[in-house]
Amino acid sequence: MITKALQADISVTETAQAAGIAKQTLYAWIRQARIVDVSSRSKKKQRGRPRKSRWSPEGKLRILVEASALSDEDLGAFMRREGLHEADLERMREAALAGLTPVVVQRGPSAEQRENKKLKSELRRKEKALAEAAALLVLQKKFRALMEEEGDDTAELFGDDS
Predict the structure, then answer these.
(1) Whole-angstrom Cα distance, residue 66 to residue 70?
(2) Domain of 130, in residue numbers
(3) Residues 67/78, Cβ–Cβ less than 8 Å
(4) Between the CA atoms of 69, 72, 78 and 84, what dihedral angle is there, to the nearest 10 degrees?
(5) Residue 89 domain-assigned?
(6) Confidence (pLDDT) at 49
(7) What's the whole-model pTM score?
(8) Helix 12-19 and helix 23-46, axial crossing angle in degrees, nearest 10
């Protein structure tokens, strides 16, 4: 009955009615079967075997294609038959969509790299201008010192800074 309820194209309630038992009884049997199945799985995990994915990529694709063509009522029966939950189906959809997103291949430098190159060029230009201005100030001081040694009046030429 459990196998029939999970694999049939009709709902669990309809399966219970056809068998002449209460739907709560059938649901309890299904719950018990899942508990037994879960406990047997946990024993296998304890043996140290690595857990393999239940579905191959081809199987996941088949499930997604079949599920997309079904109505809500048929989808429930399909998911029971396949042993799936809505969360499993949603994870499969997300993984498939993630695999279909295009990879952007960028040619040439990025906008950040271009901006960085421009800023470095401007910085070099300003450093050169600053070095030139500093050199001119040093030369101007040396020239004034030289002119004062010779006794010329430099105040007339350059103005009195002091």
Answers:
(1) 7
(2) 112-158
(3) yes
(4) 110
(5) yes
(6) 42
(7) 0.34
(8) 120
**3 and 39 belong to one structural domain:** yes
Look at residue 130 and tell me if it is in a domain: yes
Our count of domains for the chain comes to 3
Q: Are residues 5 and 24 in the same domain?
A: yes
% of the chain at pLDDT higher than 70: 80
In the 3-class helix/strand/coil scheme, how is 49-68 assigned residue by residue? CCCCCCCCHHHHHHHHHHHH
Q: Which residues contact 101 (CB under 8 A, 6 or more apart)?
A: none
Contacts of 110 (CB under 8 A, 6+ apart): none
User: Per-residue pLDDT for 47 more than 90?
Assistant: no
Residues 40 and 60 in one domain: no
Alpha-carbon separation of residue 153 from 136, 140, 142, 145 (angstroms): 20, 15, 15, 11
Does a structural domain hold residue 10?
yes
Q: Report yes or no on 106 lying in a domain.
A: no
Question: Residue 153: its pLDDT value, please?
Answer: 57
